[in-house]
Records
---
Amino acid sequence: MTEAEAPQRSPGTSPGRARRLAFHKRQRRRSLTIGAISTIVVFGTLALVVLNSPGWPAVQESFFSWEHFKASFPDILSGFRRNVRIFLIAEVLILIVALVVAVIRSSRSPVLTPLRLAATAYVDLIRGIPTIILLFLLGFGVPALGLQGVPNSQEFWAITTLVISYSAYVAEVYRAGIESVHESQTAAARSLGLSSAQSMRWVVLPQAVRRVIPPLLNDFVALQKDSALLALLGVQEAFRRAQIYVFGTFNFTAYLAAALLFLILTVPLARYTDYLIRRQRERVGGSPL
Amino acid sequence: MKRYVVLIAALGLVLSACATESGGEAGASCEKEDLTLVQEGTLTIGTDEPSFPPWFDFEGGPSTGTGFESAVAYAVAGELGFTEDEVAWVVVPFTNSFAPGEKDFDFDINQISITDERDQAVDFSDGYYDVNQALLGFTDSDIAGATTIDELKAYRLGAQVGTTSLDFITDAIQPDTEPLVYDTNADAKAAFDAGQLDGLVLDLPTAFFVSAVEIEGSTVIAQFPAAGEPEQFGMLFEEGNPLRDCVNEALANIDVDALQQEWLSEVVDAPVIETG
């Protein structure tokens, strides 16, 4: 950076401002060019290395075969509907259960102490258990008890497992949102005559939930992928359908087809989350990037 | 210098070709020292872990020589000239057996059925066992009374993913409800035991073992001989591995039937349901 290009110290004067804008424009163009070149060099080199590797023809045939892609796709797609159903139902339940847990954990009332203890124990315990183990315990263990009236459906137990597991995480996300609302908000609400429950409902939660929408979406993306756990209980969802094809033909392309279906849903959601975060930062008044 | 090496190698090849009786075949020798192996001087055999009876010994693993597939593997190794100490076992999960890339086993023996589609990605030895599919159910359940394929359509059936047992449900039985599919036989057995399945399809020897030892109250309801060509288990080789021909030669020379008598003899008396 030369002396002439250095940003002016007097932001009010208009020749200084024009120079500063021109400088930023140059800088932006320069970083765009460098970014483009380095992207091409890095990915180009990677592509060259992969395409010229001795194993590439074999890998191409077993992972990127158009024939196998076409043959396996319809079955995988119809299995994917089950994933979608599972994670949509689970997500709605998770958002409700987690909110209840978070509100209980954030409550101050002494009467609710036992509930608060239970909620804390739930979050601590469940977050420490791998979902896959929970799934086996609930999905194979509970039906084996042979209790009257306990459902035996695989989808029921898969949804139950996901709700129990994810609610513990999502409750913590909600709670972080609730705690991020400044105490003065509650104080103001109480001074207006709202009860503690009312101020939680009408003042704290609306602000808290809006703030945590991006991390909630993040957990939703994770949930979509974990819907593949359903396969472990025997249901032929997208991943299992792909696996059946792979084991039958010894060709891995079907896995790629399944991955593509998940990507089609998760990538736009991830982009949308990023957009929300950016907008939020702009609104709160941080400097735009 | 290099030229001499090539010359000597070529000479060796000619000499060894003359030494074997089947000189006309492929030209490669099946003398122990001429075999192309993953690890020189050792026959490296793959199978999955855990491995179950009656194919292997569950506790001791494949190196005990206990179980039909372990016995066949050691018999083949012996025929090729390897002592028991010169046989090494490696754990090869099913997926790894056909994944592209260098293999860390000379061959894999893991109740793998030979099919044309699979044969395009790997090579198989000749079949060493003609396998029948079998249906496992609880003795006191409705399904135990079934005597035809059609009667089985109404039940909830399950099998392990990637098995011909699953293909059998889908293609031959064609049940009204979609079959349930599990990662492993252990998961499938757990689901069956938990009452989530009416019937579990397995290969016949495994079904007998499960009913006799593992799940109380279960029985082999029926066995199903394959319609047309018998279904066979084969050893799996990397595509183009010349060792395959030598293993086939060895398989032809050992008495597989006797080994079958020794390890799988009790599995013949289940009711037969014809599928053809």
---
Amino acid sequence: MGLLTGLRDSISRAASSLFSEQDPKRIGIYGPPNAGKTTLANRIARDWTEHGDAVGPESHIPHETRRARRKENVEIERNGKSVSIDIVDTPGVTTKVDYTEFLDHDMEKEDAVRRSREATEGVAEAMHWLREDVDGVIYVLDSAEDPFTQVNTMLIGIIESQDLPVLIFANKIDLEDSSVQRIRNAFPQHETVPLSALEGDNMDEVYDKIAEYFG
Amino acid sequence: MAEVKAPDDTDGVQIDMISGQRMKGLTSMEKIRIILDGVREGNIVILEEGLTPDEESRLIEVTMTEISPDEFNGIEIESYPQSGDDEGSFLGRLMGRDSTPNKLTVIGPADQIETLHKDETLISALVSRN
């Protein structure tokens, strides 16, 4: 981006923020690895931004996202009102990273070790964002997997302790083993929204709830 | 824990059960150090009273910085999930974010503990020698 273009964009952003009712809220997309966080972030970005640029690459290999990525000023229109949010796609949170698991995905040892190093940095970064830099959380779970894991209960506890508004997204409802009720039973204190970010199923309700919770 | 060492020729698993009283008065980082030092020696650490959510968050962060290929893969941690509508949780929130959740917590090396089953009232785990 040229210097002048960058300067013009900065001034434009500063001016619009001066006149907006409030700054966009930063909404962190959290969850365990391979829950579909980046697929969701990309779908939101594609649906509501002018150029529809992807937030990041999607992959079935865990820890594809190893840096928190922010998509600014995503304007979601619902019921005649416009809600502006920044989406922060975060690396999947875990308490362990074993590089040998990447070797099962046809990766050379050197690449697997590098990926595991980057993954650990990414998880640490995600935890830092959660404590310091997000205003609300979308917690994404693979509805075909058991939600009763320690990482899920710990992270939901951490989010609750920060008094952050949280929506639980039961993703991958297109899979045969999907059970949204299992997630509702695990976290009855929070609203659970079923969806398939990959197939685009139930996205209307997803956007209604985002506007209701974070608008 | 640092003060007590298992004899080198044993092939058992050392378990450190740390009372709430011992942890009381320590800073978050001191608690995390006690846990990670024990786990990195291959011990299973059991906390009578668990960590606060903020301490759990920092434990994950510090654990990530210490993971090293072929040396330390991270931790397995288990505690009971807190029911959203129980009295303790409600009071905890009323009292502020740093209230101690009082939940028994087990932490061990990721390559030595495998969770077999977990629900609101039961955690079943398999502990193996390295």
